[in-house]
């Protein structure tokens, strides 16, 4: 069975030596001293290793079962969920006014990586609840907040997001679910929603569904969509649970992975719902939570890769097979461990350098979200808006790819469910799809975010890269290994942006046909920037005579690998982009 | 449920307009007239569409069940297997002396793509049997041939290959299974073999296991391995079935995919075995079948991608979601079909251009194998030896990647087992692992094949590319779209080879650390060459006033896409290769 150890040291390095969290002056960040965050991460790691990780295979094997309208979660999930609640983990970055601990989102993100790495399907119950919490916190009335938030903060009640219907996922304007206004100000919700994660389960007393639906007579299409709170059990004025609402789980989907999470078809039969935010502004309400939700999925991508990587390293050290070409390294044994072989190292270094880069990128994104929320920093908000589709799309593609590589290290054993490596790949696969399939992320990036506010944020990004290179150049070895490749990659990204500006004017397909490659190109530059920042931090520590030289040397070596072996992808993506839309759009639909 | 239609027209194009099969003068190829192969492929396609494809989901869902030592295959497999036998499909390229039809391996390969595309797990029962047939045909005594071949040709009996043991897969020198010589000239085989595809099942009266084992007292390691025939039921002198042999299935593995095939742990408890070929030359005997076996797995890679692609195209045409950015294309419907969107086309073109290129490459490989076997052409044998790890490694990596892309077209529905797209990805995944994991293919390519016969075959490959470009240049549009990119890619491959020669001398790790990228670089150049050849054939047909202009225009457009959008990968692989082994080997094992 696979194991999981929280990479707390690597996390601390990003928090304190790269982002210098405690010194940023963001309200609430003064608590983020290294001792404190270290203690929190260690504690989360304990829960992850001892409780959540052992349940990961259980969840995959048992799955969720629907019987008589009730969903049974896998053995042990209930007890583990209780431990998660008791430890206060569900309340970490929630508003103290409603029982939260008010910690930065950044810290919540780091803790989230640990829980997701240990058991992604399990952690979704809490993750969806946090989404519902955020939506009600931002758009709810005082009454709604008082009614729902305290219970969502503790996860005594959990939450869901209901967007997709059988005939529409991306194009929610086609939605058919109806919300009929009632005399008492409530609405009757009728329709079917599919792919509802944690739609029904046995972990909580109540489930608060957030449901997108159309109020009859409203505007056509996406502009006529409103957001509703539809509790499984209606809540009495005294806060106790009242009548069972008209919402039921019709089916649990059989999926490729995340079996431990119940993915439900939800049927709304005149269920009582309460408008959340303004009528017909449902999509806008969803969008305010989107950066966090998508960052959370981008995190799943690399967190699964981290978990898979950890196990691949163990196997590569244990499994004896073949001899090093440069001479036996385990001469007393029957063979050398796999890890002596250059191609196994190539694979492990691909994984390691991606995961550590993605972690830094994700933490930086969370840091920008805090900056925008806590310091009302519009530039930070604009920048993280731009980066969010990259974090989501690039990291989940690469995360899956790396989980597959980790599985590959096991040879035939990687294909056998017994060893657990297949689950990492199967679970990671969903992150490329939900919360906006990655093609949609690319479209969002190129079609909306690039030009947002007159292209201000992408210019700011390039400026940031340029300044970093300018400010930190001069050390020949560092320049050559880190800054020169970053500069070249950034130039490729700028060239791609320029191509879109010039050719997209002539025909928007020239931009859209390159959107996916642009997202990946951007992702490489971002991870290149993060590695340059991590490399600099490591160099600074070494120059300062840090006692743990091996740790920092390893960081530098891993960064050098990323720059030498991942970044060359930027030229390929640029070449694909610059080939334009002609070859992409050449065929009639009938000739595919 | 997914569907499958044999792409017979595309296959015929490769057979007759690219490879000009009937005119090659290879013994037996004179029968390969277009009418004949067309009829065979249509007939195979009928069986595939009507019988095998509908059983693909059944196989995945039901899997194989072991009860009291007997394995039950999924519903319908038995009847389908009977139809496969009755149609003579199992005997297609087998020796007429033993009941085969003596057709070229090339035709068998084309038919194989159809069956594998329709139902990969099902087709493995026959595929493994064909491997056992080949081994006995090549290395068996006259008695052994007479005893086993007629039954293997018809698949009344099936075959298996037993190599892997729990502690050794790649490194078979560590093998522990023992073969004790008996007075009657037979051997007693004792040991455990794992991952034995079709090791036990209910489709045939007898199962002929080919088992690698060590005769005590023989040479150490891989040089002391011998190959044995171990029938499930011993065969009496009159050909009837005798005593049950001491070989049993201990367990069926739970796998990520190919559930329809029984992957068995096989226990040999003093089972009676008969030496096949020479003692201690078991690996050599295995190697003689390796090109075919590996080509067969490379075929699985793109055949699964083809099946997944076909369904992605159907979905992209059916599913209405969003509007084309250049204006509504289905103005009377609620939305446009997915296929109007550039990023969906980018994905479909990636798939289509890969699959068609891979088909041509695989058929060319099969053609070279026929040439080497039927015309005793040593150059063809050397060339296909060189190309085999590329066909296997590159095509299964890409095949999986493309199946994942096809799955992605379905959005959330791609993750739900009901739609069948997950199965294509899960089934395709194994092809990257078995028959030598792809890292081993890369090692075989760079460590053995490149330098084989003094590098003669790789030089011949480059010469072939050069000659093709020289002979067919002069048409500006064709040069620009096809020959120039091929030339550039081939130059990258040569530069990589040069790097290995120069730097690999200093340190072999410089070559091995780049082996995986080299395999992919090589794959791109091969598919580039195939597309140039297909492009030329299409151009020739159009210049000759072919009636089906749309078919040939589509070929040219698809080829242009491959050259513009796939081939830029060669520069990335070269850059990774030229970064050498330093960053790959930098870390101590403890620092991963």
From TrEMBL, chains A, B:
Residues 161-269 form the Acyl-CoA oxidase/dehydrogenase middle domain. GO terms for molecular function: flavin adenine dinucleotide binding; oxidoreductase activity, acting on the CH-CH group of donors. Belongs to the acyl-CoA dehydrogenase family. This is 3-methylmercaptopropionyl-CoA dehydrogenase. Transmembrane segments: none annotated. It comes from the Bacteria. Its cofactor is FAD.
């Amino acid at each position: 069975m696979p194991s999981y150890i929280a990479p707390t040291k690597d996390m601390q390095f990003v928090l304190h030596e790269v982002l210098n969290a405690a010194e940023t002056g963001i309200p609430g960040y003064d608590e983020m001293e290294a001792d404190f965050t270290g203690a929190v991460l260690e504690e989360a790691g304990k829960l992850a290793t001892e409780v959540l990780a052992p349940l990961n295979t259980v969840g995959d094997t048992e799955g969720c079962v629907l019987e008589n309208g009730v969903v049974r979660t896998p053995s042990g999930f209930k007890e583990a969920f209780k431990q998660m609640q008791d430890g206060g983990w569900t309340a970490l970055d929630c508003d103290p006014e409603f029982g939260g601990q008010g910690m930065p989102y950044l810290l919540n993100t780091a803790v989230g990586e640990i829980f997701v790495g240990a058991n992604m399907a399990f952690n979704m119950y809490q993750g969806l609840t946090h989404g519902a919490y955020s939506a009600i916190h931002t758009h709810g009335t005082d009454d709604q907040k008082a009614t729902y938030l305290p219970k969502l903060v503790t996860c005594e009640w959990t939450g869901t997001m209901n967007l997709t219907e059988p005939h529409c996922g991306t194009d929610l304007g086609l939605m058919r679910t109806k919300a009929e206004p009632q005399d008492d100000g409530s609405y009757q919700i009728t329709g079917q929603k599919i792919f509802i994660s944690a739609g029904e389960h046995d972990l909580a007393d109540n489930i608060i569904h957030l449901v997108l639906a159309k109020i009859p007579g409203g505007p056509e299409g996406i502009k006529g969509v409103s957001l509703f709170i539809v509790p499984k059990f209606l809540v009495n004025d005294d806060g106790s649970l009242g009548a069972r609402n008209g919402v039921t789980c019709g089916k649990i989907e059989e999926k490729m992975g995340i079996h431990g999470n119940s993915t439900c078809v939800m049927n709304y039969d005149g269920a009582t719902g309460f408008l959340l935010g303004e009528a017909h502004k449902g999509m806008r309400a969803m969008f305010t939570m989107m950066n966090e939700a998508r960052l959370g999925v981008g995190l799943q991508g690399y967190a699964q890769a981290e978990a898979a990587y950890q196990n691949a390293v163990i196997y590569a050290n244990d499994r004896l097979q073949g001899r090093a070409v440069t001479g036996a390294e385990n001469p007393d044994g029957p063979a050398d461990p796999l890890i002596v072989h250059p191609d196994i190292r190539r694979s492990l270094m691909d994984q390691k350098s991606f995961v550590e880069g993605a972690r830094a990128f994700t933490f930086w994104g969370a840091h920008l979200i805090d900056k925008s929320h806590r310091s009302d920093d519009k530039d930070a908000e604009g920048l993280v808006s731009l980066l969010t589709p990259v974090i989501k799309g690039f990291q989940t593609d690469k995360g899956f790819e790396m989980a597959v590589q980790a599985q590959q290290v096991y040879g035939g054993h990687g294909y056998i469910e017994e060893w657990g490596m297949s689950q990492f790949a199967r679970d990671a696969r969903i992150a490329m799809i939900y919360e906006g399939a990655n093609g949609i992320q690319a479209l969002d990036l190129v079609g909306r975010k690039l030009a947002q506010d007159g292209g201000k944020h992408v210019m700011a990004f390039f400026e940031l890269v340029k300044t970093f290179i300018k400010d930190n150049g001069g050390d020949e070895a560092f320049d050559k290994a880190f800054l020169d490749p970053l500069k070249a990659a950034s130039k490729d990204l700028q060239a791609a942006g320029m191509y879109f500006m010039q050719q997209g004017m002539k025909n928007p397909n020239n931009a859209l046909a390159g959107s996916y490659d642009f997202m990946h190109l951007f992702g490489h530059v971002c991870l290149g920037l993060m590695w340059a920042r991590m490399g600099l931090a490591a160099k600074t520590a070494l120059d300062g005579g840090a006692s743990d030289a091996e740790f920092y040397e390893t960081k530098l070596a891993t960064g050098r690998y990323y720059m030498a072996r991942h970044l060359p992808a930027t030229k390929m993506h640029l070449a694909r982009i610059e080939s334009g839309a002609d070859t992409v759009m050449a065929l009639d639909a009938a000739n595919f």
